[in-house]
Amino acid sequence: MKLRYHILLKSIAVVLTTGMLFSCTNDSRKVRDFLADKNLPIGVAKDAYHEYKDSGRVTSKLITPLLHDFSNRKNHPYNEFPKGIKIINFSKKSNDSVTITGNYALSYSKTKISEILGNVVVVNHTEQSRLETEQLYWDQNTAYFYSEKAFVLTTPTSIVKGVGFECKEDLSKHLAKNVLGDIETQEE
């Protein structure tokens, strides 16, 4: 009788434990909403390296020590790069043509606008031009940079310093708003 009672208690414990294990489910939508409510990323990547391709050809590379994925936001999904970012864009000839670096970045997937902050440097290796600023907005739809912060734009023929600018992604056709100091240019 004692043995039978012991087996019955073990059987009840096994059934209850099994029932508890199978009753736990995680609805992915509920988890995503919970993370969004707590302002937590849906994913985190360390030492991320991503290649973007178009028709089998590498068009750009993204390198970052830390990526937070907030794509679970309904209105404004974004990615955060809290430890900096390096983006290398390639020309059609597969040359390293433009490199963008910064200490911090946000990239909004719906609008395709990115904000890069802190020691932002854009280098066009082909044209040998360099842009330095503390804040840069990048509209990927129009391939355009703009900022209202102080900047230094260095080209082989000129050095432009000022506050506020707009330019194409390859640093050509720039518009300097409030120019400070002298502008050095060569006439053709």
The global form is elongated
Give start-end ranges of low-pLDDT stretches.
none
Residues in helix, % = 10-25%
How much beta, percentage-wise?
over 45%
What structural class do helix, strand and pairing data support?
alpha+beta
Mean of residue pLDDT values: 82
Along the chain, the helix and strand elements come as: HHEEEEEEEEEEE
Please give the alpha-carbon distance between the first and last residues.
108 Å
Number of distinct beta strands: 11
**How large is the count of helical segments?**
2
Query: How large, in whole angstroms, is the Cα Rg?
Result: 26 Å
**How would you write the strand order of the largest sheet?**
2-3-6-7-5-4
Largest sheet: 6 strands, antiparallel, barrel
